[in-house]
Amino acid sequence: MPIKFDGELLGSSSSEARGNARWTDISVYADNDTGGYLVSRVGRSLVVHDGPCGNFKPASPPVHLLDYHVACTFCEPPSSPSSLVYEEVQRQSAQECPDAWTTIDALRLRSKEDDAWFVPTNSALALRMAANHDDKIRDALRKSMRTRWSW
Ligand SMILES: [Zn+2]
């Protein structure tokens, strides 16, 4: 469902890298209507499947195999140019954050290994970029680095 708001992009970052078949684009916006912020995440994938596979269930009709598609290593879909394959859907989410602190919180993740909170590199880049354009995020980021968690 599209979200409509009056805002301005403060910072963005992508974990896209050569060889990554899945990545996340992070954007931090200033919300001019509320004075708060909006954090947008778009999970992208080039992976294609032969059909239902693990947690993947086809959500749209199959498409012809394209150059940029990356074959799932579990179900190994057919690889001829005329093959039909199923694409993974782009996962989009947007989170409204009333202030700079909740914006930083929204970009933290909890480590599965030691249960500690951390800010993934991708999110940290978007936040640092946002801090260059927004005093409140810059102040909150400075304080959070000193008092709340280590980077
Ligand atoms: Zn698969």
In short:
With 151 residues, the chain is an alpha+beta fold. It contains three helices and ten strands, in the order ββββββββαββαα. The chain has helices spanning 100-106, 121-133, 135-147; strands at 7-14, 22-31, 37-45, 47-49, 63-64, 70-71, 84-87, 91-97, 109-110, 117-118.
List keywords for this structure.
10 strands, binds zinc ion, alpha+beta, 151 residues, single chain, 32% strand
Detailed description of the structure:
This protein is an alpha+beta fold. 22% of the residues lie in helices and 32% in strands. It is built from three helices and ten strands. The protein has helices at 100-106, 121-133, 135-147, and strands at residues 7-14, 22-31, 37-45, 47-49, 63-64, 70-71, 84-87, 91-97, 109-110, 117-118. A four-stranded antiparallel sheet has the order 1-2-3-8. Bound molecules: zinc ion (ZN). Zinc ion (ZN) binds next to loops. Residues 49, 53, 56, 72, 74-75 line the site of zinc ion.
Q: Please indicate the count of domains.
A: 1
Q: Return the string of H and E elements.
A: EEEEEEEEHEEHH
Strand content: 25-35%
Query: How much helix, percentage-wise, in residues?
Result: 10-25%
Q: Describe the main β-sheet briefly.
A: 4 strands, antiparallel
| Rg, nearest Å | 19 Å
Note the gap between the termini: 34 Å
Shape: elongated
**Distinct helical segment count:** 3
- Could you report the average pLDDT, rounded to the nearest whole number? 89
Number of strands: 10
Q: What structural class is derived from the secondary structure elements?
A: alpha+beta
**Distinct ligand kinds:** zinc ion
Please give the order of strands in the largest beta sheet.
Answer: 1-2-3-8
| Uncertain residue segments | none
